[in-house]
Amino acid sequence: MAVNCLPNYPPFNRFLPPVFKSSTVRKSVLARNSNGQEPSSTGSVLLQEKKTFPGKPEADVVVIGSGIGGLCCAGLLARYGQDILVLESHDLPGGAAHSFEIKGYKFDSGPSLFSGFQSRGLQANPLAQVLDALGESLPCVNYDSWMVYLPEGEFLSRIGPTEFYKDLEKYASKNAVQEWKKLLDAILPLSAAAMALPPLSIRGDLGVLSTVASRYAPSLLKSFIQMGPEGALGATKLLRPFSEIIDSLELKDPFIRNWIDLLAFLLAGVKSNGILSAEMVYMFAEWYKPGCSLEYPVHGSGALVNALVRGMEKFGGRLSLGSHVEKIVVENGRATGVKLKSGQFIRAKKAVVSNASMWDTLNLLPREVVPKSYLDRVNTTPQCESFMHLHLGFDAEGLREDLGIHHIVVNDWDRGVDADQNVVLISVPSVLSPDLAPPGKHVLHAYTPGTEPFELWEGLDRRSAEYKKLKAERSEVMWRAVERALGPGFSRDKCDVKLVGTPLTHRRFLRRNRGTYGPAIQAGKDTFPGHSTPILQLYCCGDSTFPGIGVPAVAASGAIVANSLVSVSQHSELLDAIGI
Q1: Cα–Cα distances in Å, from 245 out to 236, 331, 519?
Q2: pLDDT for 193-209, tens place per residue?
Q3: How buried is residue 465: exposed, middle or buried, by Cβ count under 10 Å (0-12/13-18/19+)?
Q4: Is residue 544 helix, strand or coil?
Q5: pTM over 0.70
Q6: Residue 517 contacts residue 549 (beta carbons within 8 Å)
Q7: Mean pLDDT of 244-268
Q8: Residue closest to 79 by CA, chosen among 353, 316, 310, 304
Q9: What residues does 406 pair with on adjacent strands?
């Protein structure tokens, strides 16, 4: 459920440490609610790039964008001793994972379902390993369940090896229980192989033979021996679609198949026939092993972004907000820097790293330097759809006291989890971190997860009556889901804050081509691109590159690029330092 989401942004500087503040020229605007009416709270948007630039206009490595992938890359490079400069167009760091504040309500704009932050060592979440390398901790609240509202009924779904069996027996069938046990018995042993090779050990050159092959071959071999011949054969499917494992186990129960599709879609934006088995096995190991738990950062997802920025700055890295990159400068076939919208040139002595999507990165390049094969690959890569968002601030009075943080609503299995207006995800993070809302209040983010067609919105004027009408119509499915999850004590008329975001909002503030979630690349049919490009000294990280979409994946991509830009000995020293 780690998705890239964003509604209409109000100012958030007061929620960030002073080091993040920007002198950007602003103009107050009114955020609009679903009816196109103006609520009493005001916000601001970036209207003009700031005139001054902090520090010298050069660095060893210039990183375009401060999303999770870009910050992980920049932080590790700073730790490696490189001079790093991150250029962020927005006045807030974090990309799709940033937080914002309005009327005392502090909202997550994107991912809110996390796990593995507190783990350390070989099998830790890649993002946890990056934070460990930067010497940063992230206090979290632990929990173990979310509410689901399905055609079969509604129930509290708990993670762990046994709790889900009770739900299956009640809402599905005894056959579903048997098939779920069969699935866990088959794939949990595979997690040893899936986790035996930490993503932070990977690099994009032949040095990988040292940092991966010689370092982790013994643990990989040991895991294969422990699994036995049948398990080892199953491990060969880790880089194949997860549906192949499901089919090989002859799992036919409709509820089990639907549930697995839902989990896959929430994880990577594709169903089980399009997601790598390794990703699903990793997720199952995180959620369905004894002692597992989910985690939510104290103070919200913004605390995660702040921790990455602190870690980067601790090692001398720099972050420049309100610095919009207009063009990647290429000289003699090499990326030598970037040109800002203000006209200023920022030199990159060793490399430029783009944390933008593949389509947006392409648009930053002079077309004459782009090989046709690269152009064709980017232009033919299918895209996931975009989002609808609903951010609310409201009174907690009258709501049940046991309200959970996460709620998932599926309206119709037959339409498929990837159908538009069919699945709604809801997060109420103030349940676990009360400081995100004023006393006695709650914050809420509801969204349709990468299923909103951009074509419905393309060409609309955001100020037009047509846009406002469509906005109200397409947000209604989220309002109904929220009312179902919160119960009769909730009233949309009593919300202090109402913000509705559309694909145009997503495109505008995240600068994402067509407001897309990311590449719709299906395992077994295609692979996510690597991190180098045909332009020398230009690299890419984020959800347009391997391993793909999701918070752990983009963290790993940033780490892989950072590792590729330093020596094998430096890379090995880092792996030793964090115990992997």
Answers
A1: 11, 48, 23
A2: 666 778 888 888 888 87
A3: exposed
A4: coil
A5: yes
A6: yes
A7: 91
A8: 316
A9: 427
